[in-house]
Specification:
about 260 residues; alpha+beta; Helix Hairpins; Heat Shock Protein 90; 2 domains; five-stranded mixed sheet; two-stranded antiparallel ribbon; 6 helices; about 20% strand
């Protein structure tokens, strides 16, 4: 209370905003935990990878020494080799998930990055009968991003789109342009759409959770890693899905924009 001559004139309240301090503290703890997880996972992956490679090599030699007419044995060997491949992919995904957090931010042209990725994917898409097209707005601005990590983000999304369309073919569309939040902050928006079967509504809330997958051969970490990377870039990812297609929307802040996106 504020007093004068023993009379209370008013009450003074002092507020201190500690939200930014708390966010920094939480983020630091998360990075420390992730670093420890990365160290443990790296040791575990090394110990597991060698036996898997030995098993895979043994199975390949077994296949060479098995008579061609013994189709049942060959089918079993191929199934076991497939399991070895899935285990290896799982270990690689877990390693990647545990290592996210080390970024080298620099100005990045998303249009050029995506055009390079799509050229890399073009032979496979042509074999599957998948067409693709890219539309880049002329007023698109560069973002502040880590090229290696964002390369992984868009590789994951393109890979998923190609997988769900499969041999029946379809169309992969990429659209890049400016976006402004309700607060006037500038972002670059990337929409990646496919003409696959769509994602059932009951699965959409789980789609970014670790180890959730709709593919029998998937690890369930691709989209989780994708969201982790986008969030670390102070961006946002969401999706729109319907029977006949899915669109992933990615929003990344342009150069000199550090506010989190609020749509």
């Amino acid at each position: 209370p504020v007093k004068q001559n023993n009379k209370i004139l008013g009450v003074l309240f002092i507020f201190q905003d500690i939200s930014e301090h708390e966010r920094t503290k939480i983020r630091t703890q998360q990075l420390e935990q992730r670093a420890l997880l990365g160290e443990v996972t790296a040791v575990f992956a090394h110990e597991v990878r060698n036996p898997i490679n030995n098993i895979s090599t043994g199975l390949q030699l077994m296949a060479l020494n098995t008579p061609k007419e013994d189709t049942e044995a060959h089918e079993m060997i191929q199934r076991l080799l497939g399991d070895c491949t899935r285990l290896t992919n799982l270990m690689e995904s877990v390693l990647t998930f545990s290592r996210t957090g080390n970024y080298n931010f620099a100005p990045l042209d998303l249009g050029s990055l995506l055009e390079r990725l799509l050229k890399r994917w073009r032979p496979r898409m042509e074999r599957l009968g998948i067409q693709y097209h890219v539309k880049i707005a002329p007023d698109t601005l560069p973002v502040r991003g880590d090229q290696r990590s964002l390369d992984q983000v868009f590789t994951n999304l393109i890979s998923n789109a190609v997988r769900v369309m499969g041999k029946q073919g379809g169309t992969l569309a990429v659209k890049i342009g400016p976006h402004f939040s309700s607060g006037g902050k500038a972002f670059t928006q990337v929409d990646i759409s496919d003409t696959g079967p769509g994602i059932p509504e009951e699965m959409r809330k789980q789609i970014f959770e670790p180890f959730f997958t709709t593919s029998p051969n998937g690890t369930g970490l691709g989209l989780s890693i994708t969201k982790e990377i986008v969030t670390a870039h102070r961006g946002r990812i969401d999706l729109t899905s319907f029977p006949g297609g899915t669109i992933f929307h990615i929003y990344l802040p342009v150069i000199n924009t550090t506010e989190e996106i609020k749509l």
